[in-house]
Amino acid sequence: MNNQKIAEVLPLKLNLNHGFYYLIPEHLKGEVEAGKRVIIPFRNKKKVGIILTVSTETEFRDLKEIEEVLDPVPLLSKEVLALTSWIADYYLCPRGTIISLIAPTQIFTKKIAALVERNSLIKPVMPKRLTGSNDSAEPILFQYRSFKERDLYYLHLIENTIEQDRQVLILIPDQFSAGGLKKRLTKIYGKSLAFFDKKVSTTQKYLRFLSVQQDDLKVVIGTRSSIFLPFGRLGLIIVEREESPLYKEERAPHYHAREVALARGLAEPCQVILGSPAPSLESYWQSSKKNYSLKTYDDRNDTVQKSFLTTYVVDLEKEKSFQRVISYQLQELISRNLQEKKGIVLFLNRRGFAGYIFCAHCGQVLKCTHCNSLLSYIKEGNKRFILCPKCGEKVPENRLCPRCGEKALKPMGFGTQYVADIVRRMFPKAVVQCFDSDIAPNLRIQQQLLNRFKKREIDILIGTQLLSGKLDYQKVELMGFILIDHLLNIPDYRSAEITFQLMYQIALNLEEQKKPKTLLIQTCQPEHHSLQAIKKLNYPLFYQQEIELRKELEYPPFTRMIKVDFIGSGRESVKKEAQEFREFIGQSGIGPMVGRHIFLSEDNRIRTDQKGDNQLGFLLKIQEKNHNFEKVRQILFPYILKYPKNKVKLMVNVEPLKLF
């Protein structure tokens, strides 16, 4: 047995944390390598698995044989395989969940052969030729103030990396990010650069894995899953807009691409750059603790130029206008810009006509029968509808309350359509257009509206956060936030940070145009520290005040959090599983490391789909002292792996961005 080669193979599409051992038949010995996919007999079926290790020793006997090797070269490098082990341990999920997410799971041998022949992609994977050393390089947090500064810095790093015969990975939050940088890099590197986003077929995914291993591909720009590509000579990882919540995978295994990038940079090793104009508090805090090296625009000794941006904060509590949605000051600025034929954008992060609907007779607030979300009110021409913004369910308006039957339903709050109606009445000659996911649900319509705005065919564009990342700020002279409180008052400990980051990036976009621009923010909280910091465009000022609040309330970065949810159709069975978990916490020793921050909300009934599933959850807030976070994970992981596959699902989210 000791002379016989053995492979540990992990079957794909199964949530297993370990592989199974198989004999390598004589005719496949030259083809079997870690990271390749194979066909194996498993539970009386043929399954696709991935080879984790190859060895000559095992305590098991009467092993079955590998039947077929699918890949000409390993799809997962040794570094990526090691990374999956780290993710499983850190994010408390079976290793098979991660590998099944990464690796192409459905492609047939004949198709592989055709792809190889057609694309001429398969060459022997070259060993690493590392002429530079990054063994001691610590992560760099790069806080830039303009895209020009960002691009110059990134291009310098990329050029140096390629000169060392190493590859570059640039992570972006979504396919629309860093448009200017993409164009510059395409012009410089041409065919040695590739763009990868998540919307690809299995065949395309397979080709990507092959192409990254080749010598001729130097730079890859991609969304979060690109962090798992099998680079052979990775020398630089840039995480652009590192604060973006889009880097957090909301499905199992709930990894955060920024944290995975940092782990990969340490293991490869390679340099990691976290770039942002308004970094996450966690990253900035790490730089204050000297765990990251902070590089700002001041480090380049640029001459400070006069700001072209004028910022106003309007206190709506003192507003005497008959119509408080549009203050006197904003009304005057709109009028002036219309006369001068300058672009006007109004921002409100709530789409539709009204935010929610309630019954004036019995007080009932209408919720979706499918997903239990608040229903909103929208207008389409002369017709009015009730819409669920979460699942898209839309029905014609009905004034009868479903609970008491009275004709007393009233729309409350206001959205983009309501603001558009008011603006049209104020400025009847102006062309006013909404820009949100109701009006512009796809890229084609969005681009049409943006083109019309650029050509001055639209005078006033009223949009949600969907608009902020797609605007040509050169065409915007006035940006007005109708009510920033909609964002500030979201029940989330990160609401102030999210709001500041949005306003700060918009302000910097306006300022970068080197033309006079105006930013006006309407609020009922003019003294809020995020607004005071925006007036001065001062990120450190915001950070200093926000970090003190986080410390006082014991939120990250001063604690680490793990969210544990039990979800199922039967309310009593969900409560039973949750109660058993609570008992486990008490018996396992986790309690003292978490303390009073454990909670179980037995009244938290959330219908997540048409079946009306129930959800009961725990939030574990763990102090960083004495390595408590690591200890809690070590205790929890065996419980999670052994959790029975029953009607109640166990969902674990380590360091969640959303608590509710």
How would you describe this structure to a colleague?
By secondary structure, the chain is an alpha/beta fold. It contains 19 helices and 26 strands. Helix 11 (443-454) links the parallel strand 20 (432-435) and strand 21 (460-463). It is globular. The two termini are 54 Å apart.
Helicity range: 25-40%
Oligomeric state: single chain
Overall mean pLDDT: 85
- Amino-to-carboxy terminus distance: 54 Å
Q: Can you list the strand order of the major beta sheet? A: 8-9-7-10-11-6-12
Number of strands: 26
Which blocks of ≥5 consecutive residues have pLDDT under 50? 129-133, 299-304
Strand coverage percent: 15-25%
- Cα gyration radius (Å): 27 Å
How would you classify the helix and strand content by structural class? Answer: alpha/beta
Tell me the number of helical segments per DSSP (H or I, 4 or more residues long).
19
Indicate the overall shape: globular
Largest sheet: 7 strands, parallel
Features:
660 residues, alpha/beta, seven-stranded parallel sheet, 19 helices, globular
Topology, element by element:
Layout: E1 6-11, E2 20-23, E3 37-42, E4 45-55, E5 68-69, H1 78-91, H2 95-102, H3 109-119, E6 140-143, H4 147-163, E7 167-171, H5 179-189, E8 193-196, H6 202-212, E9 219-222, E10 234-240, H7 257-267, E11 271-276, H8 281-288, E12 293-296, E13 309-315, H9 328-339, E14 344-347, E15 356-359, E16 376-380, E17 383-387, E18 394-396, E19 409-412, H10 416-426, E20 432-435, H11 443-454, E21 460-463, H12 465-468, E22 478-481, H13 485-488, H14 495-511, E23 517-523, H15 529-535, H16 539-553, E24 559-568, H17 571-588, H18 591-594, E25 614-623, H19 628-642, E26 649-654
Parallel strand pairs: 6-11, 6-12, 7-9, 7-10, 8-9, 10-11, 13-23, 14-21, 14-22, 20-21, 22-23
Antiparallel strand pairs: 1-2, 1-4, 3-4, 3-5, 15-19, 16-17, 17-18, 24-25, 24-26
Helix pairs in contact: 1-7, 14-15, 15-16
